[in-house]
Design a protein that fits this description.
8 helices, 318 residues
Length: 318
Amino acid sequence: MRGWSEIFRQTVVSVALILALACGLANVASQAQEPLPPVKIPLMLPRMPSVPLHESVLHIPMTISGPSGVRHLTLLATLYRPSGPGPFPLLVLSHGTPRNFRERVTEGRLRYNAQSWEFVSLGFAVVIPMRRGYGQSEGDYAEEEGFCDQALFYEAGMASAKDLRATLQYMAAQPFIDSRRIVLAGHSSGGFASLAMASQGFPGLSGVISFGGGRGSMQEKNCSPGHLIEACARFGRTCRVPTLWVYAQNDTYFPPWLARDMCDAFKQAGGRAEFVMLPPFSQEGHFLFTDVRGLDRWTPVVTRFLNSLGFPGTMPKP
């Protein structure tokens, strides 16, 4: 899974050279004693001629029941798929939750194109649903956690799982999807939601990948770590598929001790989990997955896990 990583490194070099010329750094040698300020590189996905993403937009139907009766709504989603008719194994990729609640509706349709390309290059169709209350998906935000010291993390996770179930049911019925080969993956609260969904089971579900999974992160600490660990234990009691938990050492949202305790609780309750703690990443390890500079770190780990589940190896890349 090194195609994107190599292209990204080439992009970094090219952009850095352009910036150097534009800034007129002719005397850089004489200024070698002073460190240069960091250069912000645009995180853009170059064109992929050999393995295109075939992006399309979906409106996934969902039915919810409440005090006012039954309501039909749609979730906005992004679909990427390999070339050809399929059927392809399915990977459902779930987003996290911004700390600023206003960003839930202003962030638009999340695409994760660079990250998705890694999975598409392995032969997966990738769908990224925006859950209720996010972006332009219909329905009210359903993941309220309540008061901090009595956080309802388990309930919030189960609310997220309803959106993922609607997505799974819709995608599994598509003729280009192999409904017997499904993987759930997600970042932050999306990883937590994936574990919640797996605890309920779904036909064809093969495994779960959680990148920095959890809920309740505040600016200086986690809201209620005890309730978060307890929720993971409840997921572990009924989850019957292998799971991969990936964190970075400098994740301040879910620091190493908390990440390990969550995973240990999951395993002690009966869940099957592989825990991977990667070295520190950039300034904030929680963004290991969402920052394309982290691709080199997590792709080997994920590839090995998927291979252990019987999924194909890397397809030819340019």
